[in-house]
Amino acid sequence: MVPENSSPSTRLEKSPNDHRQYQLTELDNGLSVLLVHDADALHSAASVAINAGHFQDPPDVQGLAHFLEHMLFMGTDAFPDPDEYPDFVDQHGGQHNAWTGTEHSNFHFDIRPQHFAPALERFSRLFIAPGFSPQWIDKELQAVESEYRMKLNDELRRLYQVHKETANPNHPFTKFSVGNAQTLVGNQDGSLQQHLQAFFKRWYHAANMTLVLVGPQSLDELHELASTYFSDVAEITPDNTAQVPESISEPLYTEAQKGVVIHVRPLKNACRMILTLPLPGINDDYPFKSTSLLAHMLGYEGPGSLCSELKTKGWITDLSAGGGISGSNFKDFNFNIQLTQRGLDNYLQVAHFIFNAIDALRQQGIEDFHYHERQQMVALSYRYQDAIRSIDLASQLSINMMHYAPEHIISGDYLMQGMNHSKLSSLLDYMRPEQCRLMLIHHSLPVNQTTSLYDTAYRAEKFSSEQLRALNHEPDQPLCQFPSPNPFIPQQVEPQPLREPSARLPRLLASAPALQSWHLQDADFRVPKGHIYLSLVLPEATNNTLAFAHARVWCELVLDKLNERCYDAEVAGIQFNVYPQQSGISIHVSGFSQRQPELLQQIIKALTDFEFDEQRFSAIQQHLYHNWIALNRHKPINHLFTVLNQTLQRGCYIGPDLAAELKTMTASKFQHHMPEIFRQMNAIMLIHGDWPIDTAQQLTTMVTQGLGLQNRPQQGPLREVRLLEPGRDQRFHCRLPHPDNAIAYFCQGQSLNLDEKAHFLLLNQLISPGFFSELRTEQQLGYMVGTSYVPMNGRPGLLFYVQSPHASLDDMETAIRDFIRSFCEQLSEVPDAVWQSAKQSVIAQLTDRDPNLRVRAQRMWTSINIDDTDFSLAQAMADKVSSTQLSTLVESASSRLLTQAAALWLTCESEESQAEGRDR
Length: 920
Fold this sequence. Notes:
The protein is an alpha+beta fold.
């Protein structure tokens, strides 16, 4: 790591490949500020972090921190219009967001650099003089209530509530973080406005906040911006109520809440076990990453591992270790396990395997090479990390400023300064059956109570002495193994020599008729990484629901085999995936490039020499079936998005239909059908990274021979799109067991030409902010409101959507129609400045340079798959946008959105609202 000079007293460690300049400073009011000069930044960005979250909610106004987050966007003293800040950011090529966590909150935005100063002027007032207008308090209270109701069936929220109600009631974790109309106004003294003002004054002050500014501006310019716009943030004085949070003294769980088994009945089909081992806070261990090392050892998935042995028993389909909530005085170390039905029946034995592995680790210790391998990979990841967007960097660093020593603000996430043996020993001592919390999730489990929020049925009881004896039983020998030295750890850690420095576009290599192979050794991103995309065009894999279900099961079986054999490769920074898609099956390999060819060869071998395992087939079939059935309980708007694709695109299917096919699928039928899927096969390939052309040619030959493509005839991928009839609305309607109604309105482009694409892009850019403001902020129809440009295989489209807990489908449709009509009527009056800004924003989206190798590879691959093989479509579209006249767009909007719209209405009705007679 290279020290970077900032303020005279602070040296910030950074990666040797990090070209940015950093400066840590403090304003006169005590606000800590980090300035980041990035000469290559496409956007300038700002982030403010507050050292307060829902843990600071008053007990009688739970959800206040989250509600305050909403209200800060509802106007300030200098900019009382709630749309002023978001519209300004949207109109100048930016984005904005915020979140409220347990102990921190974060606000961030980005924008084109030339508009950074006026954006900061608007942004800064959120933290200086928010309006807290009673009018907007009432409206936004409806939005928070909608957000709460939208997630009533969300399984994560429902599980989270069980977690809260079975934890120490004196710990702030148990407070209701989201808030709703009842918790915000139903139990408290004083007005909600008064509580907002008091919370803001108490926690939103300079000593409790951090600010990060990122952009191509110089450090001096960034400092001037910070000083100009944030010097008025309040500071702590003896005369005000400003505070910083006190440390938490209460434990997360009482002793009575440890050594327990908790049953939870989900709404969706699920069969899971979450084994939680409560640990003390780990914030001070960030230079050593002890829990990360334990997660690596216990979550290993290679041969002989805990995961592998449990799969061999037929008890699980997946296992991960180490995740779980964490805070200033607590850390949950979770084993998150997808069980089979056999695993559920033997859940104590599954838990026994886990505790046996922990005991073996406690007795054997961790060998030095385990830590050194992790240390080496973390160092490589840090050195060759992908460039990230300015907005993500700003948000990340503003939180890091609250967690890490100043010199580690940039490097803290990657530090591994040596094995902390005493910490590891201490953590392992907490990992015992008497301390654990074992949660089982399945619809058949006995329950005896319901949570106060989200109506989750559950039961919690202590382990019996017999169960504890079973969990503590020591077998004659360890039941699993820990990782051996990893053969995939890269030795070549420098980019390969550049053969053609002037090459900027992929080149088509000579290949068999049935394989189209493209290659580019990247001259801009000089890192020892690469991406290999391989698409197998398989008409028989996607021509009906049954075939697609077979293809998905087959992909899961292949991944299941590869995950164990190739897990070391993933640990060594090489990722891979095999998945079905619209025209067949795709393979993607990425990460450090040196060993990727070897991994691709193993994947090809797994495809062609597939070994069928009936036990794994049954487990995967069961798991997929539950997942597909559960899609019926997802957000209704997401269901409509899936239906839209299924209705208009070949090779797209919805979960419940796939589940129906899966239910009758047998092992013999599957084995009989799979060879048919590969009867017709072509392939398209992209090799992009630091590989020279001779390596790319070797990879092309390997794929050609490995898949037997030499003598196959050429055929193109099937990409049909169903065309909607202009001037006639088509409709789809469904009902789902969700409390919300949802509606989506899709207008399809009627041509593939550049004019049509440019018009739809511009319409979305112009219509989106107003649609959100009118239907979400003004009318409060729901929490999920928006528009999106949705191209389908080159044909443009525009989607409008709303999900509401209270509005009828008729009311939502009327609101959408009225808004579109009003928009089209007023489009000709759009000010020239707004028109030009909209055009520039769209042009920037199309032509902004790629920030990293991953984004460039994705862009190149997308171009190849839509036959844009000269890679010029984006620039051509940008040129067309630039030359588009507003008068032409006015005519197009009236035709495509109103009089001659080729449109599809998709509606989803709540079964609850139908029963109550609220809807048609």
